[in-house]
Amino acid sequence: xITVFGSINIDLVSRTAxxxxxxxxxxxxxxxxxxxxxxxxxxLAARRAGANVRMIGAVGSDDMxxxxxxxxxxxxxxxxxxxxxxxxxxxxxxxxxxxxxxTIVLSPGANAKLSADDIAxxxxxxxxxLLLQMEVPFxxxxxxARLAKAAGARVVLSIAPFLPVEREAFADIDMILVNETEAGxxxxxxxxxxxxxxxxxxxxxxxxxxxxxxxxxxxDGAVAATTEADTISVPALKVVxxxxxxxxxxFCGVLAALLDEGADLAIAMRRxxxxxxxxxxxxxxxxxxxxxxxxxxSLIDDPAFP
Length: 306
What we know:
Helices cover 32% and strands 23% of the residues.
């Protein structure tokens, strides 16, 4: 069982030829309201990859709440741990350009009121996975990690969006997920020199933190360094990118799903990398997340993946 403790948002998305410069207005497409939030994204990605998933989060009392939960509900994610807090559901304002690059402004809304106390006693235990991100109050994220670790669960932290995390914050974390930029930022924050490659950077982080560290590398796939000093690299699937929003969350959710069912790290990373690539080939975040069948078919079709 995977429990996701994290954010639930509405993504307000507009496409434009190029991203605006400061002070500039550019024409955009008709906007879309799409369910999002890193917590909800990762929960749905894990569920579509075949895991049993429970979402612990918060939405507001506004009309946006139902839309924010629609994909999770339709996908079969357990929403009994989702609370109604305050007036507004979290919102991300996203602009996507013709090169599939994006900018995001996040207003937390109800996410700011999420508490580790919302995790029901006894609901996370031995053999379970707790998946965390950085869009809810960090002290509550750490409290959730302590609770899950004490109960014998695997605890996975996605450091996104990046916040400067001190060493002691990783005491109850088993696995750290970052993108290449976040890996460099974390290394510098901890007083390390980032490597010239993603593999070097995660190796230095894993050695310093004594935790498995995985970095997504966009079109170059992903790389992990374990506490045993092993390095695992997997390639991305070749796709024509349409929108990269949510690709990293897809990777995190699918990785957690495969690990939760007992796959080894290399196999889990292969499928997570495929899923992240497939998510880039469609617009939006949650609507683009692939089902397990699509992931497996892509593995069969691409000779780069055994």
